């Protein structure tokens, strides 16, 4: 694990120097210039969306019997997923895309996941549902309701995992 973090730090140091990022004093934390931070977030958003868009396009092509087109769309989708994961490495020192929290270990990833999932389950999807209903789009409102429910289930799983890991870590500390 330590080797992975060290490699990540060296990799980030090499990559970030050409992007105009600033290395803070004797640490592996980087402070991105605000425009660079915005661009990383835009890139993450576009890559993640494209990954799913192209997978959808591949399924459409398959339904139409166009296997060659489906293969191309699927390859692009997988490439976008890989690019999203690689771009996410830059976010580690800036902070999570949604929460702004630094997510450099499992517990910090869990805290960030809980925060964003809770917001989606209790604020965002219910709000989206309300707007869809006001606009007379009951099917879309019902979909947002289902998403809120799914995210509440995910939230329960995340909180349970967090509690278990904290218990396990505290037991390890006691030994």
Reconstruct the topology from this structure.
Layout: H1 2-17, E1 22-23, E2 30-31, H2 34-63, H3 67-94, H4 106-134, H5 138-174
Antiparallel strand pairs: 1-2
Question: Which descriptors apply to this entry?
Answer:
175 residues, mainly alpha, 5 helices, 2 strands, 80% helix, disordered N terminus
Description:
By secondary structure, this protein is mainly α. Helix content is 80%, strand content 2%. The chain is built from five helices and two strands; from the N terminus they run H-E-E-H-H-H-H. The chain has helices spanning 2-17, 34-63, 67-94, 106-134, 138-174, and strands spanning 22-23, 30-31. The protein has a two-stranded antiparallel ribbon with strand order 1-2. Helix 2 (34-63) runs antiparallel to helix 3 and helix 4 runs antiparallel to helix 5. The chain is globular, with a radius of gyration of 20 Å. It starts with a helix and ends with a helix. Residues 1-32 have low confidence and may be disordered.
């Amino acid at each position: 694990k330590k080797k992975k973090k060290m490699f990540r730090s060296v990799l980030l140091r090499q990559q970030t120097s050409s992007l105009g990022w600033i290395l803070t004093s004797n640490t592996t934390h980087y402070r991105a210039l605000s425009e660079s931070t915005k661009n990383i977030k835009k890139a993450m958003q576009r890559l993640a969306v494209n990954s799913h868009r192209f997978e959808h396009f591949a399924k459409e092509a398959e339904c139409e019997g166009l296997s060659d087109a489906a293969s191309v769309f699927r390859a692009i989708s997988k490439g976008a997923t890989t690019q999203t994961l690689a771009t996410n490495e830059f976010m580690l020192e800036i902070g999570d895309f949604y929460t702004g929290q630094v997510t450099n270990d499992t517990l910090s990833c869990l805290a960030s996941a809980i925060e964003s999932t809770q917001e989606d389950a209790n604020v965002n999807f219910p709000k989206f549902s309300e707007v869809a209903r006001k606009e007379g789009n009951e099917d879309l409102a019902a979909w947002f309701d289902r998403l809120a429910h799914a995210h509440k289930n995910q939230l329960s799983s995340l909180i349970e995992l967090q509690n278990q890991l904290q218990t396990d870590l505290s037991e390890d500390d006691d030994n």
